[in-house]
Amino acid sequence: MSAQQTDLATVKVSDNKTLEFSGSLTRHSVASLWSQRKDWPVGSETRVDLKDVEVIDTAGVAFLLEILKLIGDGKGPLTCIGASDQLKQIARVSGVESLLSLS
User: Fold this and answer.
1) In which domain, by residue range, is 37 found?
2) Assuming Cys at both sites, which of 12, 44, 67, 78 could form a disulfide with 20, CB separation 3.0 to 4.6 Å?
């Protein structure tokens, strides 16, 4: 397993193609994380683990939608494990619940 860190967020890539995020997925951290995407083994089986994400904002949700575009046709859903109530609320208000499989 490899780990990459930004000032506010970390991503680990597990052996089963799960991107494990921790910290904050906000406008302050997603640009730096996005620049690391070339190191992610993304494909149609890619999942996102968010159980260790402490804070997420609309930029974080947009970031998840960009990951969705990377892994396929962008029509979803992207499997998101450990989604917080905050993420679920933002997705609902933003109208993107159907694109993100939040559990």
Assistant:
1) 2-102
2) 12
Residue 29 DSSP one-character state: T
Q: What are phi and psi of 9, to 5 degrees?
A: -145, 155
CA nearest to 7, candidates 28, 37, 36: 28
- 46-68 confidence digits (pLDDT tens): 899 999 999 999 999 999 999 99
Average pLDDT on 65-80 reads 83
Q: What is the CATH number of the domain that holds 45?
A: 3.30.750.24
Considering its fold, how many domains does the chain have in total?
A: 1
Which has the closest alpha carbon to 19: 32, 35, 37, 7? 37
Q: Judge contact between 93 and 73, C-beta under 8 A.
A: no
